[in-house]
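Reply to dn_fold:

You asked what the input looked like. This is it:
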Amino acid sequence: MIIVAALRSLFRSAGKPQALRLWAGLAALFIALFTPLAANAEGISVSNATIEASDDGWQLNADFDVQFNQRLEEAVTRGVPLYFVVEFELSQPRWYWFDEKPVKLSQTYKITYTPLLRQYRLSMGSLYQNFTRFDEVKRVLSRVRGWHVADKGAFKGGGAYQANLRMRLDTGALPKPFQLNAVASSDWTLNSEWYRWAVTP
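and this is what came back:
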């Protein structure tokens, strides 16, 4: 209240040009303070992704920025499993026909919670890790390392290829009642845009 009273007094004592400048300064301060909050809003984005040669072909390393909203975190702690799908495509542009897509892969991560043990579990197929904190689950989910995406002979004819990558919450894998919620509410929408970059083998 003291700050508000001081601002009112300042605007009353200032002339019109000065008052306008003060309002502009406050608006700029407001934008600067709240822009970081918008950057960390819920959703998924790809921070970076690379394809590197390995002994048996090519592997993908990627980092995602995954921000859950409160409803999804609560759903996990109440026993609702969440499935996240990472999709990868490798295509070679062709001017005379549709792009050739020699590689099209996906892998699914499952997040569950066991109340008795107070443990979160992140699993992919038969592999899994247990965690005591949800932040740890997010950290591991956000990192893809050494994913074998192509054999040595996948690149043919030389030239540049385009790699496409994204992560999404698979709402179709939710229990039926929650699938209806996902259709009606944007709280259950957690997808990244396609991240695209050029690959020259």
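The first helix runs from residue 2 to 13.
Hope that clears it up.
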